[in-house]
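anyone seen this seq b4? input:
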Amino acid sequence: MGKPDFFGLDEADDFPPKLLRKLYGEIEVDGLSDHVTADWGALVENSELYQALKNSVQPLIRGKFQEEYGRDIGLAQARLKKRIHDRLAEMPEYKRQYAEKAIKSILGRYYGEPESKVEPIISVLLDALERTDYRCVLDYIHEASRADVAKLAEVLAEFGLVELAIIGQQANTRLAFLEQLEHLCADPATNERTIHEALERNLWVFGLNYSFFSSNMTLKRQVESFLGKKFSGKRENRRPDLLLAANYENKYLLLEFKRPAHSLTYADYQQATTYRNDFVPFTDAEIMVMVIGGSKGTDLPPERNREKNTEFFVFSEIIARARTQLNWLIRDLGGDLHA
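predicted toks r here
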């Protein structure tokens, strides 16, 4: 009846999505006939009986998957650890424990992918662990006696240098990210969904004020529920690509992604502010709106005539500004490191 239901496993952060492809079956449940939609296309989501069914079935499915999936992950981890044995053996104990835990996490995230693709990712992880002395300096600070002011001052100075080095390394990594993002935006075939996936966890591209925003599973579900109801049936192909994020002040950021080849228009402004008004009944949080496209059309309203907290961004300008800031940071760090 209706679409396949994974009883909440498709929304669980700790369940690899690729495992869902291996899940199939049929459950017969008496007593739910009064808990379906009028077209018999789906179960009523807020049905208490359906929720009880979900709570009962999900642990059973998890248990069966854990038997097979856990065995597969264990074997894959053993094979990889054997191949990288020498590198792990040279690490301090605390780093080795972290590396093994991280390897297992990567194997879970990329479950089903060939090891030839996973191994380079793990290699990069080990490179980062081998080259970073950050934790060592923190341990040194912790061990330094507060009475030994000279020693503590020396350690803090060393800590500052490590901090600068790590920030510089991150800045260079972000420059490489911007390079790839620029290539992506230059491709006429790039669509909204692709851009969404690239920027969802990289909101620092838009500037420092936006780097504190992040998406979460609750907000994702809220957006999916809203879009599923508003853009269904024949309107499905007109469904927008929205991201709803929140920061530590509980302010919301509603982003609408347009194709890099799309020129923003007044209609886009109206559409985005309408989405915000549609979300207002669901939250008391302040909602900021950002619309991103390839260029700005001539009919976009000036800032003084826009609704409050509404911004337009162009991909090329965003990338150029972020690159300038990072290059300035690297030059400034270089002076501090050589001082």
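The two ends are 70 Å apart (CA to CA). The longest strand covers residues 287-293. kinda curious what u guys think
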